[in-house]
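Worked example 3 (structure in, sequence out).
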C-alpha cells in the first residue's frame, strides 16, 4: 500500500497527547512518517513526545493558526499520502488501512473523508458532560482530522490559508473543488473526536476564524461569478 505521512498538531496537550500519538503508531497499516507540529507547549507535552522518538519527529510551529501548523507538517513530510490528527483525538485501529484502500481502489479520487464518532472525555464530571450535546454514532467527517489526501492536491489547490484556526478545511475545500479535484466521503470510521472543556471550537476566536473563512470563500465565489459573466 502507498506510504502515509501523518501531521499531528499540538499545543499544551499533556493530558491527551500520549493516547493520541499511540493511536497513530498502532495502526494496522502503520504510517511511514509522523511529524508533530508543536505550538510552544509549556505543560509537559514536549517531554511526553520525547518518549515516542524516533518513531516521530517534533518540530516547532512556524506558520500561524491550526492551518499553519498543518501546512508546516505537510512541508516536513515526503509521503505521497497525507493525514492529519489533533493531539486530543484518537484514531481507530483500521483507519489508515481502510482509507488507503479506498484511494487505491479509486485512483480518480484525490482524497477520502471518513466518518467521525464523538465521545465525552472520561475526566469530565457528570455536570460538565451535561454541557455537551454529543451525537450518537458515526457522523460525516468535515475537517482535516478525518481526511486522507494525495500530496498533489496541495500543488493543484494551494496551501492551507495561513492564520486560520477554524474553517481551514472549508476554505481549502472551496479551492479544491474549483480546481476540479475530488474529495469523496467513505463509510470507514476515521476518528474518535474527544469532547472536553478546552476544545478550540468552543472559543470566541474559533468563531471569528470561521467567519473569516466564510468571507474569504464568498468573496472568491463572487469573483469567479464575475469572471464568468465577462
Amino acid at each position: 500500500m502507498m506510504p502515509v505521512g501523518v501531521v499531528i498538531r499540538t499545543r499544551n496537550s499533556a493530558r491527551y497527547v500520549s493516547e493520541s500519538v499511540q493511536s497513530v503508531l498502532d495502526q494496522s497499516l502503520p504510517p511511514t512518517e509522523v511529524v508533530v507540529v508543536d505550538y510552544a507547549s509549556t505543560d509537559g507535552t514536549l517531554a511526553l513526545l520525547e518518549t515516542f522518538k524516533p518513531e516521530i519527529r517534533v518540530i516547532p510551529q512556524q506558520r500561524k493558526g491550526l492551518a499553519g501548523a498543518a501546512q508546516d507538517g505537510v512541508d516536513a513530510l515526503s509521503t505521497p499520502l497525507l493525514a492529519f490528527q489533533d493531539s486530543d483525538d484518537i484514531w481507530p485501529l483500521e483507519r489508515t488501512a481502510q482509507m488507503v484502500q479506498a484511494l487505491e481502489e479509486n485512483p480518480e479520487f484525490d482524497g477520502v473523508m471518513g466518518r467521525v464518532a464523538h465521545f465525552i472525555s472520561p475526566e469530565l464530571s457528570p455536570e460538565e458532560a451535561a454541557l455537551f450535546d454529543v451525537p450518537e454514532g458515526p457522523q460525516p467527517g468535515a475537517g482535516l482530522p478525518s481526511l486522507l489526501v494525495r500530496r498533489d492536491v496541495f500543488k493543484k489547490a494551494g496551501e492551507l490559508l495561513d492564520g486560520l484556526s477554524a474553517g481551514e478545511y472549508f476554505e481549502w475545500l472551496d479551492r479544491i473543488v474549483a480546481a476540479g479535484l475530488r474529495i469523496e466521503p467513505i463509510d470507514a470510521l476515521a476518528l474518535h473526536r474527544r469532547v472536553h472543556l478546552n476544545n478550540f471550537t468552543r472559543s470566541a476566536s474559533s468563531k471569528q476564524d470561521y467567519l473569516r473563512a466564510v468571507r474569504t470563500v464568498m468573496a472568491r465565489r463572487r469573483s469567479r461569478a464575475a469572471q464568468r459573466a465577462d
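Notes: The beta strands are 4-10, 33-38, 57-60, 81-86, 111-120, 139-140, 147-150, 183-195. The longest helix spans residues 204-229.
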